Amino acid sequence: MRKAATIQDIARTVGVSTATVSRALSHPERVAEQTRMAVLEVVRQSGYRVNRTARNLRRQRSGSILALVPNLANPFFSAILSGLSTVLAASGHALLVADTRTGSNPSMRVSEYLAGGMADGVVILDGSLPDAKALERQRLPVVLACEWSPHRLPSVRVDNEGGAALAIRHLVQRGHRTIGHLMGPPENVLTISRLAGTKQALAEAGLSLLPEHIFTGDFGLESGAKAAADWLSLRQRPTAVFCASDEMACGFIGALCHAGIDVPGSVSVVGFDDIEVSAYLTPALTTIRQPRRLIGERAGQLLLGMIEAKSAQAPTEVLPVELIERQSVANPAG
């Protein structure tokens, strides 16, 4: 049976120190290209594998990153977690995922995760968490993804206000003058930001958002269906509705379809997120695309940089969004 190659074997073959081999594998940017390529070629030929357990013990690290997600059943988070996992795997980190909305006391569960030493850093996709003081006590690098908090924690998010404005301007350009808005939870930062962008774009067009044309939701399918019932009950219905999430837009369109209402013939609909199902609805949903995989990748890169620098500070990144035009928007009837 062939003996497994060691880091000493690699160093001896290349003619460098074991420290140089280690740097070539863990921090390749710090090693001259010719040396780095020589190390990697010998590693490939020998089948050498890094003993990550031993390395983590030396560094007093767990080798794991914890992602806190508010609802694992929500398809919105899948691409973000995929991007995050890809970046972490390349650096030798495992991804642990926990649902913050399970159990009677989510905040207590988060504190237990952090206190248990099971993670070297945390990516939080739930803006209502965590308790900033608890995080400061744990001294763990933390990055917020998608949502953000008033505690000035580093975050990776998109231009939510600008995305909402894009949606409204598109509807105005198609001739709509009475536009409704289906919001998320009132206290949520995404809701607040997207409502601000909605009002700003309407004001630019000389229009306003009437109180009876504001529908409250929770980003979920059921609240979209309820908003459809509320829209049907109005005497003066808006000819278009901008939904603050694709899931709500799906629920809204589905309920109207069951009621015999044509979309976009009777009402145009725009969503936000561009989750996978949006392109397969009937009609396919016009929406604001978030680069969800990129959000996960950048959150992972930001967090790994903080871990290596042993710093809790990092810049916040705001990524652009784009309008994806499909079939759920038409000119208003008449």
Taken as a percent bin, the fraction of beta residues is 15-25%
Distance between the termini: 81 Å
Lateral strand order in the biggest sheet: 2-1-3-4-5-11
Give the assembly state of these chains.
single chain
Average predicted confidence as pLDDT: 86
- Beta-strand segment tally: 12
- List the helices and strands in order: HHHHEHEHEHEEHEHEHEHEEHEE
Share in helix: 40-55%
Number of helices: 12
Overall 3D form: elongated
Biggest sheet record: 6 strands, parallel
- List the uncertain runs: none
The helix-and-strand class reads alpha/beta
- Over all CA atoms, what is the radius of gyration? 24 Å
Tags for this model:
334 residues, alpha/beta, six-stranded parallel beta sheet, 12 helices, 43% helix
Fold blueprint:
Layout: H1 7-14, H2 18-26, H3 33-46, H4 52-59, E1 64-69, H5 76-90, E2 94-99, H6 106-115, E3 121-124, H7 132-138, E4 142-145, E5 155-158, H8 160-173, E6 179-183, H9 189-204, E7 214-216, H10 221-233, E8 240-243, H11 246-258, E9 268-273, E10 286-289, H12 292-309, E11 317-319, E12 322-324
Parallel strand pairs: 1-2, 1-3, 3-4, 4-5, 5-11, 6-7, 6-8, 8-9, 9-10
Antiparallel strand pairs: 10-12
Provide a quick synopsis of the model.
The chain has 334 residues and is of the alpha/beta class.
How would you describe what is shown here?
By secondary structure, this protein is α/β, with parallel strands linked by helices. Helix content is 43%, strand content 16%. It has helices at residues 7-14, 18-26, 33-46, 52-59, 76-90, 106-115, 132-138, 160-173, 189-204, 221-233, 246-258, 292-309; strands spanning 64-69, 94-99, 121-124, 142-145, 155-158, 179-183, 214-216, 240-243, 268-273, 286-289, 317-319, 322-324. Strands 2-1-3-4-5-11 form a six-stranded parallel β-sheet, sandwiched between helices. The protein has a six-stranded mixed β-sheet with strand order 7-6-8-9-10-12, sandwiched between helices. Strand 3 (121-124), helix 7 (132-138) and strand 4 form a beta-alpha-beta unit. Helix 8 packs parallel to helix 9. The relative contact order is 0.12. The mean pLDDT is 86.
